[in-house]
Amino acid sequence: MKKIVSVVLVLSLVLGTVFAAGVSEKKSEVAAQTKLTYWAPLNPNISSVVQDFSQTEYFKELMKRTNTSIEFQHVSAANDGVMTEGFNILIASGNYPDIIEYKWIDYPGGPQAALDDKVIIPLNDVFAKYAPNITKFLNEHPDIAKMISTDDGTYYCFPFLRGESYENNNLLFTEGWVWRTDLLSKAGITRTPRTPDELYTALKALQGIGVKIPLSLRKDHVSRVLAPGFDSFDDFYVENGVVRNGLIEPARKEYLAYTAKLYREGLLDNDYLSIDKKSQAVKVLNSICGATYAPGGSGIGTWLPAMQQSDPSVHMVSARPLSPSADRYSKFAKMSNIYSNSGPSAAISSSSKNVEAAAKLLDYNFSEAGHLLVNFGIEGVTYTMVDGYPKYTDVIYKNADGLTLSQAMAMYMRSSVNGPFIQDPRYLEQYYSIPELSEAINLWAQTDYGKYIMPPVTATSEEASELAKIMNNVLTYANEMESKFITGAISINEFDGYVKQLKNFGIERAIAIKQANYDRYMAK
After folding, report:
1. Angstrom distance (rounded) from CA 507 to CA 283
2. pTM of the model
3. Are 505 and 470 in contact (CB under 8 A)?
4. For 168, phi and psi rounded to 5 degrees?
5. Model confidence over 212-268: pLDDT tens digits?
6. Of 65, 169, 246, 348, whose CA is between 20 and 30 Å from 20?
7. Span 34-165+338-423 CATH architecture
8. Rounded to whole angstroms, how far apart are CA atoms 398 and 402?
9. Domain 174-334+449-523 has CATH 3.40.190.10
């Protein structure tokens, strides 16, 4: 009997140990984090503080909530050229991480080519199985579902979206005029200009009181600022269902002749071809110019507080876009599509060994909790709920570590940068917190471009290849010739010959391709 009891005890101990080991093993399995690899551009506001997304408070919190460990691979997002080069190197390697953030509309041949090349995978089944939050959102927003799918309805990314609709959406307007109204008042100008004639009068008045450079613009801003005054545009647009391109229209000649006049008379900065963000800021901060153009946060939001510290009399405001007539809006002024190539969206690569985990990670941003995290950070740390409104705390506004507003936001959230999520307008309301910027948002929205904007159409691989060849020649030549027209190197009288050459390059064929893309998009 004693022997039997001893055997039973031994067996119990052995089995207990085995069972405990099994439980421990299962607990370990549950606790183990899923490992993913993730390629993404690194925004300068982040790289100025840390060298890796995993070091940001946002991604630390996201990984904790999703029980995921992420190894990041980065390329600088300082400019599009560097980012594109880094992306091309990644694609050429054939060694893809689980997730890739990129402007997939810019992929050679478009998103369909990225699928055909087996760089990324179609997501329809993935959404249905593993991504309930974005699936619900797209079911409720069929217009946006159309934007992020190919012609046959194939989803290819978790998108970066500027809000949920075009109505009352200040997220679509983020840059505009910057006027030194204290200088305008000194020059006898009582309101910011609304038409080309009013602009010319104001710039001459500023020149008359000794302002060295009345209007200082970077090259990529010149057309954006001045062309709306002539209902001119430098890209494809849609009018009454017909696709057009403003480069070859008569209004373009009017815009170029006017801009050449400003340049010739010293009203437009004669260094505009070489001005970058840094030199632009130097001219503004040293009161060398009377007007310029910039994004809100890095423009008025940065310059005005800095200048008022040393001279409280300095005042800046924005203005609505120019128009041919003061009593109506222009057809064209800067605004974004809800979904466009303005920011990287996330796709799952064909090399991913854990599609489910990648999808669940990306889908989290489209949940209610994820939406708050990605736009406002961590409740009780970077924001508090005040009557249902997520209000930023001093961790953002008066950061104890000396981070600027932009840096603090980039460390704790992604709303001020971009990525796979839906931007919340309430973030911008607080980011543009000074009254001058709150007013600016409303002014920038005073355009009719929403009626003409080209939606994010997609092309077949063959169409995209042909279009790329045509538009590479067209845009290279247009860039060169428009600069020569403005600087006077070539007479505006040569405009007709210039248009003829654009047609020889195939711009009319490009318009026909875009028309086909648009028609298919509308039929989806």
Report:
1. 38
2. 0.83
3. yes
4. 50, 45
5. 999 999 999 999 999 999 999 999 999 999 999 999 999 999 999 999 999 999 999
6. 65
7. 3-Layer(aba) Sandwich (3.40)
8. 8
9. yes
